């Protein structure tokens, strides 16, 4: 199993309950595919570096994960089809 960092940005118009449900959903996808979420960091609403789809802000969430690549691929696939996720980026943690 490998260590990953997964950062994703949620639309700022999503309410608090829907945001928590979305974070929980992605955490469950990872655990259902044999991975573990070591840490979930809710970084809050921040200004984007550049405008994306006429949005200037987004809600940032950072996950520290230990998983197989198939769990990461499934999570990324679900994030790409979700209308609430603006951007996502996964990096391998070499530490």
Structural description of this entry:
By secondary structure, this protein is α+β, with helices and mostly antiparallel strands. It has one domain (2-92): 2-Layer Sandwich (Alpha-Beta Plaits), CATH 3.30.70.60. Helix content is 32%, strand content 49%. α1 packs antiparallel against α2. The longest helix is centred in the first third of the chain and has 17 residues, at 16-32.
Entry keywords:
2 helices; Alpha-Beta Plaits; 95 residues; 32% helix; alpha+beta; single chain
Structure, briefly:
The chain is of the alpha+beta class and 95 residues long.
- Please report the total strand number as a whole number: 4
**CATH homologous superfamily, by name?**
Ribosomal protein S6/Translation elongation factor EF1B
Number of domains: 1
Give the amount of beta strand, in percent.
over 45%
What is the terminal-to-terminal distance? Answer: 13 Å
Q: Assembly state here?
A: single chain
Keywords: Ribonucleoprotein, Ribosomal protein, RNA-binding, rRNA-binding
Organism: Exiguobacterium aurantiacum
Family: Belongs to the bacterial ribosomal protein bS6 family.
GO molecular function, one term: small ribosomal subunit rRNA binding
């Amino acid at each position: 199993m490998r260590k990953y960092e997964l950062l994703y940005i949620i639309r700022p118009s999503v309410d608090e309950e829907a945001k928590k449900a979305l974070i929980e959903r992605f955490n469950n996808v990872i655990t259902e595919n044999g991975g573990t979420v070591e840490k979930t960091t809710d970084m809050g609403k921040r200004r984007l570096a550049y405008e994306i789809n006429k949005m200037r802000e987004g809600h940032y969430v950072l996950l520290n994960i230990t998983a197989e690549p198939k769990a990461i691929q499934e999570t990324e696939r679900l994030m790409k089809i979700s209308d609430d996720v603006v951007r996502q980026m996964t990096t391998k943690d070499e530490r």
